[in-house]
Design goal:
Elements lengths: L5 E9 L5 H11 L3 E13 L2 E7 L2 H14 L2 E6 L5 H13 L8 E3 L16 H9 L5 E2 L3 H8 L6 H15 L2 E5 L7 E7 L4 E7 L9 H14 L4 H17 L2 E5 L2 E5 L4
Parallel strand pairs: 1-2, 1-4, 4-5, 5-6, 6-7
Antiparallel strand pairs: 2-3, 7-8, 8-9, 10-11
């Protein structure tokens, strides 16, 4: 029996399991991809609240990634919460050492701010993303607010979002999947922008009780598709359908402080 392809997620651990490493591993498993993890931070959080962030040492982050890459035939890599300039640089040191023709596809989810508004990235880390990680990426997957930070200006329409994607591709050379779910519309429209094309990915907008983990889940599904051998457009379309299902089938519990929800990532 042929073993499943392997994908690595480099991200934070979410104690509520709706985002981060936990969401990524559930998503990989859904697609029959064997997920491995490089934990960058331990985060105490629930949807709507981040209480504590503890970064893992740079040496431990590098050792986790190095051991997987040295011992397994990794088919794709996804980065999520990297938190600091030091961690981003440590990850890039390892990825840059892989010859470009041997480097697995890299999906970069530039996690900057939690859906509740809590910062998930130290301010001086943005330059490390721009200078080192974005140029290594196969595709970068910012949401609206992250795209505004990277571009340095407000984005108020789908036309502006697509134009921003084209500018980012020119700046960094990698493809960008820009997510338009925060723009008011009856349709959830994302744009996959490459050097040669701009492709619209459209699903019906679903009013959800939570958006906790949507970015992690979409980028993990995209990495899973690439690990399975999809081309970038095929992986993006597969991921878009998956995140729409995950939102529409979200699960809700009624706890001590009211209703709380999670995406269906399996």
């Amino acid at each position: 029996m042929e073993p499943p392809p392997i994908a690595i997620t480099i991200a934070g651990s979410d104690s509520s399991a709706g985002a981060g490493i936990q969401a990524d591993l559930k998503t990989f498993t859904y697609f029959h991809v064997f997920g491995q993890s490089v934990i960058t931070c331990v985060v105490a959080e629930v949807p709507g609240k981040v209480e504590t962030i503890q970064a893992v040492s740079v040496r431990v982050v590098q050792d986790q990634l190095r051991l997987s890459l040295e011992n397994y035939p990794v088919r794709s890599i996804k980065t999520g919460m990297l938190y600091s300039k030091e961690i981003i640089s440590a990850v890039c040191d390892i990825l840059e050492a892989i010859p470009s023709q041997e480097r697995p596809p890299i999906v970069v989810d530039p996690v900057m701010v939690a859906s509740a508004g809590d910062p998930l990235l130290e301010p001086d880390a943005i330059a490390a993303y721009r200078d080192r990680l974005f140029p290594l990426a196969t595709v970068v997957t910012p949401n609206l607010y992250e795209a505004e930070v990277i571009c340095g200006h407000k984005i108020q329409s789908f036309t502006q979002l697509a134009d921003a994607g084209a500018a980012l591709v020119r700046s960094f050379g990698s493809a960008f999947l820009l997510k338009g779910g925060h723009l008011p519309s009856d349709l959830a429209t994302d744009f996959l922008v490459t050097k040669s094309s701009t492709i619209s990915l459209v699903e019906q907008f679903v009013e959800a009780g939570t958006t906790h983990g949507t970015g992690c889940t979409l980028s993990a599904a995209l990495a899973a598709g690439l690990a399975l051998g999809d081309d970038l457009e095929g992986a993006a379309r597969r991921a878009k359908v998956f995140i729409a299902r995950a939102i529409s089938q979200a699960i809700t519990w009624h706890g001590r402080h009211g209703a709380i929800s999670a995406l269906k990532q399996w």
